[in-house]
Known about the structure:
It is a single chain. The protein is of the alpha+beta class. The chain has a domain at 48-240 and 255-268. Helix content is 30%, strand content 15%. It contains four helices and twelve strands. The strands form five sheets. A four-stranded antiparallel sheet has the order 8-7-10-12, covered by helices on one side. The chain has a two-stranded antiparallel ribbon with strand order 1-2. The longest helix has 72 residues, at 6-77. It is globular and about 90 Å long. The structure holds calcium ion (3 copies). The site of one calcium ion (CA) has 9 residues, from loops.
Amino acid sequence: MHHTTPPRNSHQVRSNLPRRTSGFTLIELLAVIVVISILIALLLPAISSVRKRAFVAQVRTEISAIESACTAFKAEYDVVPPSYIIIPETAAGWSSNTADIRESKAFIRQCWPQFDFTYGTANQLDINNDGTFGTLTLTNGECLAFFLGGLSEKTVEGSTTLWRSIGFSKDPAAPFKRGTGPRTTPYYDHPGNRFSDLDGDDNPEYLDPIAGQTTPYFYAAYGNGGYSMKSYNASGGSNELPVLPYAQDNLNKSPWNAKTFQIVSPGYDNRLGPGGPYKPDSGTPLPGYTSLDKPSSSWTNLTTDVTVANREFEFDNITNFASTSIGGR
Ligand SMILES: [Ca+2]
Ligand SMILES: [Ca+2]
Ligand SMILES: [Ca+2]
């Protein structure tokens, strides 16, 4: 039949056509993959920079809210929250005559003139609710959480730790007691899942809203002719340089926000960096400095020179004295 001849042609067509189609599709597919890869490579930084700008705006808004809370605290007590204070939980602790205790007593008396430093008949008060009676050393971000939020309540559910600020007691002699009775409303109500406690002393700190943030806001308050803080280690470990407040000149000379306070978010890199001079109009806005420049003898942690490279972590820091991240990143 006539139909028996075509199979040879048909076979040729069948054997050539799929090979040609498959080869063409593979090349096309590879080309598409390359084009998509290039597009993704081009788009990712753009997306990430949009996300970063959104985070900067979000953090700036939160810093403004915390600033307002500090201002409300000052309106009531005529002083902003300190950035270093020690608070004994025992009457004996308060009775020692050291410079730290004298300064702490002066601050507490300013806020609560009727404060009972004997803690009544018990002679002790577990202020941080850790089950022991010691001395609380509140540094930087811990001061912010304590004075703006009041005492804290910790809830641990599995691997999740939630904190809640419960204000201070309205008992003028015992503002740091827990239990029933009227309480003050926190000046700032921080989300419960955005607290940290880097040194595990049950005195928490605030984290900013950046996803995956692990380093709390840095807080430094001006008082007694300088920033009221001691050496501060952002990581709680020994591998991190200490953090200094930002100054327009050298270290503690002409600090930014002199007479008030600095609030600093570590940015997306979770690192505060060493801080120090910040000169936005200079070619080197974040210059290096030597350990001899440390602001006071209490700054024992600063034993090495700080290089420009050490300050890389600071370019994305977000503060209450610059309108965007301090290095524009
Ligand atoms: Ca305690
Ligand atoms: Ca802590
Ligand atoms: Ca940073």
